[in-house]
Amino acid sequence: MDISVLGCGRWGTFLAWYANKIGHNVMLWGRENSRNFIGLQETRKNDYLTLSKDIELSMSLEKAISYAEMIIISISAQELRSFAKQLSRLSKMQRKTFILCMKGLEASSGKRLSQVFGEEIGKTANIAVWVGPGHVQDFVNDIPNCMVIGSENIEVTKKIVQELNSDLIRFYYGQDLIGNEIGAAAKNVMGIAAGMLDGLNNSSLKGSLMARGTREISRLVRAMGGNDVTVYGLSHLGDFEATLFSDSHNRKFGQGFIQGERFEKLAEGVSTVTALKELSTHYDIQLPICNAVYEIIFNNNDPKETLKDLFLRPVKFEF
Length: 319
Ligand SMILES: NC(=O)C1=CN([C@@H]2O[C@H](COP(=O)(O)OP(=O)(O)OC[C@H]3O[C@@H](n4cnc5c(N)ncnc54)[C@H](OP(=O)(O)O)[C@@H]3O)[C@@H](O)[C@H]2O)C=CC1
Ligand SMILES: O=C(CO)COP(=O)(O)O
What we know:
GO terms for molecular function: glycerol-3-phosphate dehydrogenase [NAD(P)+] activity. This is Glycerol-3-phosphate dehydrogenase. Its EC number is 1.1.1.94. There is one protein chain. This protein has about 325 residues and is an alpha/beta fold. The protein has two domains: about 1-175, NAD(P)-binding Rossmann-like Domain (Rossmann fold); about 180-310, N-(1-d-carboxylethyl)-l-norvaline Dehydrogenase, domain 2, CATH 1.10.1040.10. The chain is built from 14 helices and eight strands. An eight-stranded mixed β-sheet has the order 3-2-1-4-5-6-7-8, sandwiched between helices. Strand 1, helix 1 (about 10-20) and strand 2 (about 25-30) form a beta-alpha-beta unit. 1,3-dihydroxyacetonephosphate (13P) binds near residues 134, 191 and 250. NADPH dihydro-nicotinamide-adenine-dinucleotide phosphate binds near residues 10 and 134.
């Protein structure tokens, strides 16, 4: 089938590579003046992969939208609303299926990305999310992984999975959009926390972080009307190896933050932790780990003291 990918950063370019590899016709869109796009136009390469010459590159959003029935979007999560506004002004937007491949929440409102996108695009489009573990550098070296696709319409979910499943990525049908989106976004915050532990030479605490991090996010998901078990699936816990124990951007941001080094690439967890703070207040759910990350990043709290404070909270039941 014809597939357009909007966004030509690390992940968007991989998604175009992947869709082409499994047999689809692909157009990859990038912004005018995008250094990523210009580099791909010149060499068809980026730091991670080489794009087949069959993949059409375009700077015209109109062309990219009319090219395909299935449109994959992967840009910085905080830019999604303004980007969706831009899309909503284009013609030929009806009856398209949009697949959001981002892990974030709107920082100012705490809204999920499918909500943000739906508010701007309207209800006529099908909106799905594709999340779960996977690094470009693994996939292009033929190392497989499992991921999850979800939407509010199981027939839409099934159709997307049917088109995208392969022996490189095994997909599962998502059953809980709230859990999948909150889980996917929140795993980046846990990734930052893991990097902070690494920076403090407390890496052995990452097992406890996995146990307690999943627990606090599952409480939030439940309060929001999702299924708390989803958090223990691919979108959150399943992504921990790829985030807490790898060269993940979010983990590197956290470690760099402790060591006084700036990490320049996109670490979505920084904005997401603001959104989670908002949701924690709104739903009256305690998120002690997320809150600690927030205080360290935005209020200059001392990391060692913050960790100690987490340990000194009143003792309670595990579940
Ligand atoms: N396993 C998974 O599911 C993975 C998911 N991700 C997710 O993918 C998303 C993107 O991450 P990543 O590719 O690493 O980030 P990058 O920074 O590499 O790419 C971001 C892209 O967004 C584009 N962009 C930014 N703002 C706008 C805008 N206003 N309008 C249009 N395009 C815009 C940038 O354009 P320009 O080229 O002009 O700079 C760039 O191409 C994140 O949410 C991340 O969490 C990432 C890796 C793996
Ligand atoms: O989502 C990812 C792996 O599944 C990538 O995480 P980072 O954005 O932290 O590198």
